[in-house]
Amino acid sequence: MKRLFSTLTIAGFMLLNAAPVFAQEAESKGFHQVLKEKFIEGGPAFMGIVLLCLILGLAFCIERIIYLNMATTNTNKLIKNVEDALASGGVDAAKEVARNTKGPVASIFYQGLDRSEEGLDIAEKSVVAYGGVQMGQLEKNVSWISLFIAIAPMLGFMGTVIGMIQAFDKISAVGALDASLIAGDIKVALLTTVFGLIVAIILQIFYNYIIAKIDSIVNNMEDASISLIDLLAAHKK
Length: 237
Known about the structure:
Elements: H1 2-29, H2 31-41, H3 44-71, H4 75-99, H5 104-114, H6 120-138, H7 142-174, H8 179-236
Helix pairs in contact: 1-2, 1-8, 3-7, 3-8, 4-5, 4-8, 5-6, 5-8, 6-8, 7-8
């Protein structure tokens, strides 16, 4: 127990002093150079996997951001265009407007207009059903981002545990507690945790932005769907 307490005390002391030391090195060598050196010191086994989590996570984030930006539609303009088309050319003209507009809102409009001849109830059910399909498309691959957010710090913690085990193995082999003997293993252990947390923080920021973007689009879809049913009801009269 005494050895465990002493080792954990050394680990905690190194962790508390890691930030100012890192800052001092960044001022003298440059942030990117220090980051590269620390990454190499962490070892290729876990650091490589953590880096892979960052790369794959960012790839999914970029793909979702591009898709969601392309899926964003000016719903007020679309509703106005559909309303004018209904008034001037009927349902066929409104369908043409929806067909030529990109985004999930326009796709929902097209489905509702396409089934409008069968009655408002059928059109409304079609809009709701297809809205669920579009929502699934918006949320595609988001679960992978959350997976990498969870895995990255876990891998860092695993590297920390393995590093501490190696430190205890050296203590057992020598039979005495020597800070210089285990300092390297503890440093590597703490670096894996730091980089795992950094990856998780970066991906979490993108994840929150993506979720907020999806919520905004879904709200627009729901509001626009109600407006479409109102337009069809008015057109039927």
